[in-house]
Amino acid sequence: MIDSTVSNRSASLRTAFARVHLRDAFAVWQRHLEVYLRLWKMELAAPLIEPVFMVFAFGWGVGSLIAARVAGVPYLAFVGAGVLGFACLSRAMFETAYGSYFRMVYQATFDAILATPVEAESLACAEICWAASKSLIDALIIMLVLTCFGAAESWWALLVPLPLLAGSFFTGALSLGVTAHIHDIDSYNLYIALFFSAIFLCGVWFPVGVLPTPLQAIAWLIPITSAIDLTRALLIGQLRWTHWLELLYLIITALACAEWAMRSLRRRMIG
To answer: Which pLDDT score, from 0 to 100, does residue 253 have?
Structure first.
C-alpha cells in the first residue's frame, strides 16, 4: 500500500513531457497529416485567399491613408509581418480549439486513440505539434504571397518560419489546455473574444510603442507580441540583441503551456 502511494506520488511529480512517447505522438501526427492530404484543396484555400485581401486592405488601402512608413519601414512591409503572424497563430489556435474539440467530443477520435497503447500526453503533444505544423504550411504559402507583393525586404526572411513555429506551438498549446476544460462548445465564445482582443495589442497592425505605457507592458507579457516582433525583424532585416530575449520568453511560455495542456487533457480523458 505504501509502495503504491509512493509510486503514485512520484508519477504525479514527473513532468508531462517525460510521459510522451515520441513514436506514439508521431503516429497520431501522421494520422492528422493523412487526413489533411485528403482535404488539401479546401485546407489551402484560406491561407491563399486571406493574406491577399489583407495586403490589399491594409497594405495598400490603409497604407495609402497614412505616412507610408511605420517604424522606419514601408507600411506594406510592416503590416506584412502582422498579416503573416495573425494568420498563422490564429490557424494554430483554431486547430486545437474547435478542431481538437470536434475530435474529442463529436467524432470520438480521442477515445479511439486512447483505446490503443497511446498515452494522453502523447496524444496532446501530437495535437499541439500538428497545429504548429499546419501553421507552418500556411506560413510558407503566405510568405510566397508577401514576397510577390514586395513585403519581404531581407534574406533573413527565410528564417521567419522559426518564430512562427514557436508562436504557433504556444497558441496551439494554450488552446488545447482551454479545450480540455470546455464542456460546451459555446464556451469558446469567451476564449475567442479574449484571444482576438489580445492579439490586436500585439503589434499586428501598428507598433506596440504607440500604446500607453501600461498597455505596452501588458502587450509584451503576451507571448504573441514576441512572435510578431521577431517575424517583422526577420522580414525587414532589423535584428537586435533583445530579440534573443523575446525568443527565449516565447519558448519558455510555449513549453509551460504545453505542460499544462498535456496534464489537463489527461485529467479530462482519463481522470
So the answer is: 97
**Which residues, 6+ apart, have CB-to-CB distance to 127 below 8 Å?**
28, 96, 100, 172, 176, 265
Helix (H/G/I), strand (E/B), else coil: 159: helix
**193: its cell numbers:** 473574444
- What's the pLDDT score for residue 7? 41
Closest CA to 53 of 77, 85, 87: 87
Question: Coil, strand, or helix at residue 69?
Answer: strand
Cβ atoms of 128 and 173 within 8 Å: the answer is yes
Domain parsing of the chain, residue ranges: 18-269
Residue 2 has pLDDT above 60, yes or no: no
- Residue 99's nearest CA partner among 197, 24, 50, 32 is 32
Write down how long the chain is: 271
Q: How far apart (Å, rounded) are the C-alpha atoms in residues 148 and 142?
A: 10
Please name which of 98, 172, 88, 90 lies closest in space to residue 128, comparing C-alpha atoms. Answer: 172
Nearby residues of 45 by Cβ (< 8 Å), 6 or more positions away? none
